[in-house]
Specification:
Length: 171
């Protein structure tokens, strides 16, 4: 049961993340003032973040006994298994990922206008970082079919970016 919660919470979180990112790419290239689109985007982004928080809580509860030290050691073991170098510092990137997503959700809910009008570099930096960490989790450190699903989803995001028609006034 714990394993299923760990697996499905992160799978759902990443599926919602990719869906939200694809919608953001489309909206960035096709600026339309549409309140229902913005509202649904906010819900998708929020539900993805909540699913990821369930994953983090389940991992700390079932795998790490709520111990940062155990999570650090687990990260070091997984990194050594993959690249031959024991490095647990990746756990801090995971923490920044979690906090960044949560802060962005909070900003989106508590100051929608400011969030919508923020500097483009903030949005780009956030998504480049979140995507890089997601790629590590869903492709680099994943095995079997999940790795292939991650590769396909990354390809679909790339296609979404490159194939979305640019409208006047889009980025």
């Amino acid at each position: 049961m714990e394993n299923q919660l760990l697996l499905w919470s992160v799978r759902i979180a990443m599926l919602l993340y990719v869906t939200s990112l694809a919608r953001w790419i489309w909206a960035a290239h096709n600026p339309v003032e549409n309140a229902s689109l913005a509202r649904s985007q906010r819900y998708i982004w929020t539900l993805g973040c909540l699913a990821f928080l369930v994953h983090v809580a389940a991992a700390f509860h079932f795998r790490h006994d709520w111990s940062h030290q155990q999570a650090l050691l687990h990260t070091a073991e997984e990194t050594e298994r993959l690249v031959g170098w024991s490095f647990g510092g990746g756990i801090y990137f995971s923490y920044v990922f979690t906090v960044s997503w949560c802060l962005d959700v909070a900003w989106m809910w508590f100051n929608q206008e400011s969030h919508r009008k923020r500097a483009r570099w903030i949005t780009m930096a956030l998504h480049v970082f979140l995507l890089a960490i997601s790629i590590n989790g869903a492709i680099v450190f994943a095995t079997g079919p999940i790795r292939w699903v991650g590769i396909v989803l990354l390809g679909l995001l790339g296609a979404c970016y490159w194939l979305t028609p640019r409208q006047p006034g889009g980025h």
